[in-house]
Amino acid sequence: MENIKFSDLNLHKKVLQAIDAMGFEEPSQIQAEAIPVILSGNDMIGQAQTGTGKTLAFGAPVLSQIESSDKISALVLTPTRELAIQVNDELARIAKFKRTKLLPVYGGQPIDRQIKSLRRGVDVVVGTPGRILDHIKRNTLDLSGVNFLVLDESDEMLNMGFIDDIEEIIKSLNKDRQTLLFSATMPKEIAKLASKYMKNEVKHIKIVKNSLTVEKIKQYYYEVKHKDRFESLCRILDIDEPSSAIIFCKTKRGVDELVESMQARGYNVEGMHGDMGQNQRLNTLRKFKEGTLDFLVATDVAARGIDVDDVSHVINYDLPQDMESYVHRIGRTGRANKEGIAYSLVTPREYIMIKQLEKFTKSKIKRKEIPTLDEIFEAKYNSMLKDVKNTLEQNDYKDFIPVATGLDDDYNLVDVAAALMKMLFDREFNFDYNEDSPVKSTKPVRLFLSVGRIDKVTPVKILNFLEETSDIDVNEVGDIDIFDKFTFIDLPEDLLDAVLSRSSGKRLNGRKVNIEVAKSKNNHSHK
């Protein structure tokens, strides 16, 4: 499966266009193996962990094959509303250039609005079993024309008691449909469901989870604001001074932009991604291996095959699209029995993925604070002092004694040494650090809002409300937990005053919203 490209997989040209726009270069293992099977018309069981790119694995071939009609062509069942929204959003990105109509259907959302959308015509429905069954009983959902049934995270649906609902839904489907079942594990109830409702020629694809030895890799994350990501990277590089580092970006454009910004500030860096010619990539890799290049900025695909033992740091400038890629990335350091360091830059809203990565890798990813100017100054000072002492000890400066002697006539040599060290010091700084903005406290504060599901609020509506009333950057907002009568949100401490003073007391969906700091995360924990 090595070096397969999406363009090799017979996908619809508009689906390929969307995948390219998303920045993905080559399929993950589950995608490379599942897409041809699905396009061939076979039923399939895909056994793979969360975070391996399953949605694209079934979304790309299914969307390649359906055309808009007056009937629903595909049904995707997920265990939770959160996953339904997530899967629907990703399918919408894959269908960006096709005229495919998608609809997420789940509880907690007004059913009459869903009914209106269904009456207007939908090609793909993504939903939770309970709400799908509700529509079937109301005769508001006609599934007789469904050609594709996808059961996503089947073992979770089993754990949540949905197995009977799923069987009930399957009975209302077209018997000639293609069934695609995805599950991390294969309990006997799921195997039984598969044998009962899937065709005899079912294909079973099992993706073995990569093992990861992390004893020699120290993993950390920095919480950053999106607008301060580049300055934060510069601060980290200036204080750590890595001997050799690979910096990962999610997209080809991201690589180009970061390389340009770093080169403009004097870093010895080049980039690698799939659009670059083979000779250019080999030349860049040779320089990196020989040590004439300090930093390599790369996409996941371009970094494959990089076999360098002396990479001291791996830095995730962007988090990867799946957890397997994180495993591959950080495995580039800590080789040849040496210790390695892996850093990830995350915004407050990406923090949840750090928790998922800890679970996936069975390791601890510790938080670090962005270096302050004082810390960078001290690190540079110590490094420079060390270099001067080494030069003195190596006795490798005799040619410059006449120059120093000439200066002795007009200046105090201590002042001369200080001036030369200042010149060195100024060259060491790669960024014009004017203030400590990236290192202001990003400690999250949990807020209580007096609106919930009964007020028909959604995460998007809450973000829009905060943006309109308090004029904050909603990219800084962290977790949003909506309950029946209230909501909790996490946001950085420095945004607290703006939200409390400007947003509290304003109306959302016609309801006055009271906002206060939650006494503890477990307050009002009942749903």
* Distance N to C terminus: 46 Å
Superfamily (CATH H level) name of the largest domain: P-loop containing nucleotide triphosphate hydrolases
Structural class: alpha/beta
Rg is: 28 Å
Count every beta strand, where a strand is a DSSP E run of 2 or more residues: 20
CATH topology of the largest domain: Rossmann fold
Overall pLDDT, averaged?
86
Unreliable sequence segments: 521-527
* Biggest pleated-sheet summary: 7 strands, parallel
What is the second-level CATH architecture of the largest domain? 3-Layer(aba) Sandwich
Question: What proportion of the residues is helical, as a percent range?
Answer: 40-55%
Shape, principal axes of CA atoms: globular
Number of domains: 4
Beta-strand content: 15-25%
Provide the spatial order of strands within the biggest beta sheet: 3-4-2-5-6-1-7
The level-1 CATH class of the largest domain: Alpha Beta
Can you tag this structure with a few keywords?
7-stranded parallel beta sheet, Rossmann fold, disordered C terminus, globular, alpha/beta, 527 residues, 4 domains, 16% strand
Write the layout of secondary structure elements.
Elements: H1 13-22, H2 29-39, E1 44-47, H3 54-65, E2 74-77, H4 81-94, E3 102-105, H5 111-120, E4 124-127, H6 129-137, E5 148-151, H7 154-159, H8 163-170, E6 178-183, H9 188-197, E7 203-206, E8 217-223, H10 229-240, E9 245-248, H11 252-264, E10 269-272, H12 278-290, E11 295-298, E12 313-316, H13 323-330, E13 340-346, H14 351-361, E14 366-368, H15 373-394, H16 401-408, H17 413-428, E15 444-449, H18 459-470, E16 480-482, E17 487-492, H19 496-502, E18 507-508, E19 511-512, E20 515-517
Parallel strand pairs: 1-6, 1-7, 2-4, 2-5, 3-4, 5-6, 8-13, 8-14, 9-11, 9-12, 10-11, 12-13
Antiparallel strand pairs: 15-17, 15-20, 16-17, 18-19
Helix pairs in contact: 2-3, 3-4, 6-8, 10-15
